[in-house]
Specification:
This protein is about 65% helix and about 5% strand. The chain contains 11 helices and 2 strands; from the N terminus they run ααααββααααααα. Strands 1-2 form a two-stranded antiparallel ribbon. A hairpin with a 5-residue loop joins β1 and β2.
């Protein structure tokens, strides 16, 4: 895995996953969706310059015109802008993450049964990623993950959301399973804004920071069972926070007591 520089340091494997080749023929909509997902998850951040059209085409394995049309979709959506000149290119101009009020509305729209079911599915995917990562990751991969965690910031809600999402994407990449990577990206793009609402809570941020290190240690030790258990416990605690938050929303209309 290689790290690509950007305004905010993200898990190297997550960035590799964003720019991995697309399945099948590859359409402009697929290019746009892959880049949009990366912006939603905070892998690509505001102010970051995207690879050139020709480089995107090479990485995604699509025609140049397909990459160009994909960027056009993002421009129309207000996610990137293209600047001309020597220092030009396509730049991320805003996060695709929904406004907090919209996320709260979405949380309220999920029943307790739906939230619990979602947690079960997310746990199954993430635990499988951790288990396979423990079996397949190389020492160099383990060291890079630990180095990234050393620099990961969980002190604010925004940084904790970005780094928690990046960590789970990294587990998928370390699993060396294309299907797991694809599913993890889809899950976080679709449910990440709700899943990481708990990062607004200081205690949950601290718990997540500690858990990610424990998971990384278990993977480095090749202990798949421990890695699965740590992932399961973390997502369970996040799900419990979300269920409690939803109950507060129903009662008071606010996430906080």
């Amino acid at each position: 895995m290689t790290s690509l520089a950007g305004p905010t340091r993200t898990a190297p494997g997550a960035r590799d996953a964003v720019f991995a080749q697309l399945a099948g023929a590859g359409r402009a909509e697929q290019v746009a969706q892959r880049l949009t997902d990366a912006i939603v998850l905070g892998v690509l951040v505001a102010g970051e310059r995207l690879p050139s059209e020709s480089e995107l085409a090479r990485r995604f394995g699509v025609a140049l015109v397909t990459a160009r049309e994909g960027l056009g979709i993002l421009r129309e959506a207000g996610l990137v802008e293209t600047r001309r000149g020597r220092e030009g290119g396509s730049f991320v101009i805003e996060s695709a993450a929904p406004h907090a009020a919209l996320v709260r509305t979405r949380l309220r729209g999920l029943s307790q049964v739906e939230l619990s079911d979602l947690a079960v599915y997310i746990t199954a995917i993430a635990a499988a990623c951790a288990d396979r990562a423990a079996e397949r990751s190389a020492p160099a991969d383990d060291e890079r993950l630990r180095s990234w965690l050393d620099d990961a910031d969980f002190s604010t809600a925004a940084e904790a959301r970005r780094n928690a999402g990046g960590f789970f994407l990294e587990l998928a990449v370390l699993s060396q399973s294309t299907r797991l990577v694809r599913e993890q990206i889809r899950l976080q793009a679709e449910f990440g804004p709700v899943l990481w609402l708990g990062m607004s809570d200081t205690g949950m941020r601290d718990r997540t920071s500690t858990a990610t290190r424990s998971i990384a240690d278990a993977i480095a030790a090749g202990d798949g069972e421990a890695a699965r258990a740590q992932v399961t416990a973390l997502i369970r605690s996040i799900a419990e926070w979300l269920l409690a938050a939803r109950a507060r929303l129903e009662k008071t209309g606010a996430l906080d007591d």
